[in-house]
Amino acid sequence: MPVLYQAFTVIAGIFVHLGEYDAAFQMLDGIMPQILECEDSYLSAMAFSCLADGQVGLAGTNNSSTWRERCLNKALGFIDRGFLGRRTPLYFSNFSRMVLTGRNRILPHARRPWTKEHGQ
User: Fold this and answer.
1) Does residue 102 lie in a domain region?
2) Whether the Cβ atoms of residue 65 and residue 102 lie closer than 8 Å to each other
3) Rounded to whole angstroms, what are the CA distances from 36 to 68, 80, 97?
4) CB-based burial of residue 4 (10 Å sphere; 0-12 exposed, 13-18 middle, 19+ buried)?
5) DSSP string spanning the chain?
6) Quick check: 117 pLDDT over 70?
7) How many domains would you assign to the chain?
8) Residue whose C-alpha is closest to residue 34's, from 87, 81, 88, 77
9) Fewer CB within 10 Å, N- or C-terminus of the chain?
10) How many CA atoms lie within 13 A of 91 on its CB side?
11) Rounded to whole angstroms, how far apart are CA atoms 60 and 37?
């Protein structure tokens, strides 16, 4: 079955390159539980990367700043999940605690306490 999920990830990547961000996101979002059950870190990372690309694309489709911020925050969460390679809640790294807003201003995002279990 991992080959089937990898094929879906490739198709979602093609959708992203064609500008069909919503279709790519919906397709992968529906099968992410099955992808995570495979316990294949490379496949999970590819899928999370594609989900992040879809969210960044969706952020560019609307002029609302709250919409963009929400989509970009989701994208950063997906990047972190793909980088971690494990099934953990969205614990944000130092990079994803910051959100690029406005003209090259970086504002701190909501901070979460770190424990020894989740690293520094």
Assistant:
1) no
2) no
3) 27, 15, 24
4) exposed
5) -HHHHHHHHHHHHHHHHTT-HHHHHHHHHHHHHHHHHTT-HHHHHHHHHHHHHHHHHHHTT---HHHHHHHHHHHHHHHHHHHHTS-------TGGGEEEETTTEEEE-------GGG--
6) no
7) 1
8) 87
9) C
10) 14
11) 32
How many angstroms separate the CA atoms of 62 and 120, rounded? 35
119: in domain: no
Q: Does residue 60 lie within any of the structural domains? A: yes
Q: Dig out the tokens for 104 from the structure.
A: 């090259």
What burial class does residue 25 get, using C-beta atoms within 10 Å of its C-beta: 0-12 exposed, 13-18 middle, 19+ buried?
A: buried
pTM of the complete model: 0.68
* Residues across the chain: 120
* Domain-embedded: residue 32: yes
Contact in structure between 24 and 15 (CB atoms under 8 Å) = yes
pLDDT tens digit string along 60-82?
888 888 889 999 999 988 888 88
- For the beta carbon of residue 54, count every other beta carbon within 10 angstroms: 28
